[in-house]
Amino acid sequence: MSSSNVGLSLVVLRNVPLFSGLDETELDRLSRVAGRRRAGRGEQVVRAGESADALLVLLTGRAKVTNFDEEGREIILAWLGPGEFFGEMGLIDGSPRSASVVAVENCELLTIGKTEFQRCMQDNFQVALKLMQILVRRLREADRNIESLALLDVYGRVARLLLDLSEEQGGKRMVKQKISKQDMARMIGASREMVSKVMRDLEVGGYIISEGDHITITGA
Questions:
Q1: In 10 A of CB 64, how many CB atoms?
Q2: CA-to-CA distance for 121 and 41, rounded, in angstroms?
Q3: Within the chain, which residues score under 70 in pLDDT?
C-alpha cells in the first residue's frame, strides 16, 4: 500500500470505535496490512453463505445488511454508514457469512484479513472487549426488533423505526438519511402500501413533517 493510502487508513482506523483503544504503533501496523476495495451501487459486498476472510470498514457511502425469508422476500437487518464495520462474526467462529451486505451508494471500503484481525484481538485485550460490547449492543437491538414484530402493530413499528433512525439536531429529532417506503417495509415486516398509509396518517396528524429526503419528528 502506498504511503498516502497508509496515512488515510490510519486516520480511518483511529475513528473506528473497535480500534479506539489501540496506540499509534499498533494502529500504524494495522493500517499497513489493510487493503482497499470499491463497490458500486447495488453491488453485493459480501454474500450470505460465503466464507468469511476479512473484516470490512466502510469509508464512504452507505450499505444495507440484508437477507431473504422463506418466500424470497428481502429483509433489511441494518444500515451501515462511514466508519462502521461488518464481517466480524465469521472471523470469530469460522462460520460462513450469515447475511449479505449490499452497497446502496458507491462505496469505498477498508479490509483487514482474518489472520491480522485475529492477531490484533489476541495482542490487544481492549479490542476484544470493545468487540464484545459492540456485539452485545447489536444483540440487544436485534431483541428489540423481535419484540417490535411480536408486540407492536404497523403504526408502532413505523414509529419506533423512525425514532431509531433519527438523530437530534437543533432540539429536534430528524431522520436525515434517505430511506424509501419499500425499504422501511422490508425493515419492519410490512407491505409498502401499509407503510405509505401509516406515514400519511402520521403526517396528517402532525406527528411528522416530510421535507425532501428529511423527516422531522414533531412529537419527540
A1: 21
A2: 32
A3: 1-9, 219-220
